[in-house]
Amino acid sequence: MEPALYIVATPIGNLNDITLRAVEILKTVDYVICEDTRHSKKLLNFFGINKKTTSLHQHNEKNKTDEIVNLCQKGKSIAYISDAGTPAISDPGAFLVNSFHDAKLRVIPIPGVSAVIAAFSVAGLTDHHFQFYGFLPNSKKKAHDYLLKIYKSNIATVIYESPNRVMSTLSEIINIFGEEHIVIIARELTKIFESIKKASAKELVDFYKENKIQTKGEFVLIITQSNSYIDMDEEIILRALKFTLKDLSLSQSVKLVSSIYNINKKEVYNLALRLKNE
Asked: Could you give the number of structural domains in the chain?
């Protein structure tokens, strides 16, 4: 087999969601590098693949990469698989791939399942232009800033979310985009308890409050286009708010300024809060 690094996509849930080519590659290569060897052994055993494995994850990727590059330089073929889906997309692997490129060694994609594409395919969005942000930052402020950037971009956006943060993220979407903004949530894709929901952010929050068991698992969120955002110099809005807040309440100022400049009230409200907190 040609000495190269094979980036192999694996199932995100249902083990049958793997390509025939991926199985053949995993059976044929000299080494299988895994994000988590214990997790990947289940997949390899399911398909009767008995290979020497070693781990490469976010904590050891830089230390292990030279060793793996050296194996390929000695004529060995190597497959890399993450715990689920396509490696190097919100998963480890990018540093390894770059190192192979730097060493002028071949990198070969073995395509397959991707949670991003799987979720978008059932979103029913006729505008196929979208952007992918992966996981939002852990910091609440940074997550807010990312969502505000998404709002201003006016592009449908796919993000990943964990069960312990999905409710707070939905609440922040309401704060920035408004209660009626449409969000698609794909939960536990290809697994037994898979669910796809398309509704307003408020409806989704209400649903998950009443069905807390549904907040377990892995989430893909698709935030639809904002449409209402008008790209305008924030300084203009801030000056208007400073003027109106002298004589009006915060809510009255927001209502007036958003009406004058035809901007979403949530956006004006966020700017007004910034002024209040300064």
From this structure: 3
Q: Which of 22-26, 126-130, 235-239, 267-271 has the highest mean pLDDT?
A: 22-26
CB contact burial 137-155 (16+ within 10 A = b; e otherwise): eeeeeebbebbbebbeeee
Q: Is residue 229 part of a domain?
A: no
Which domain CATH number covers 69?
3.40.1010.10
Q: What's the domain range around 205?
A: 116-223
| Tokens read off for 243 | 């003027």
Q: Residue 274 above 90 pLDDT? A: no
Answer yes or no: do 213 and 246 share one domain: no
Per-residue pLDDT reduced to its tens digit, 9-62? 999 999 999 999 999 999 999 999 999 999 999 999 999 999 989 999 989 999
What does the alpha-carbon distance between residue 110 and residue 24 come to, in Å, rounded to a whole number?
11
Q: Are residues 245 and 186 in the same domain?
A: no
| 137 found inside a domain | yes
Helix (H) / strand (E) containing 144:
helix 140-153
Question: What is the value of pTM for the model shown?
Answer: 0.80
Could you tell me if 158 and 221 are in contact, meaning their C-beta atoms sit under 8 angstroms apart?
yes
Indicate the DSSP class of residue 15.
T
Q: Report how far residue 139's alpha carbon sits from residue 13's, in angstroms, rounded to the nearest whole number.
A: 29
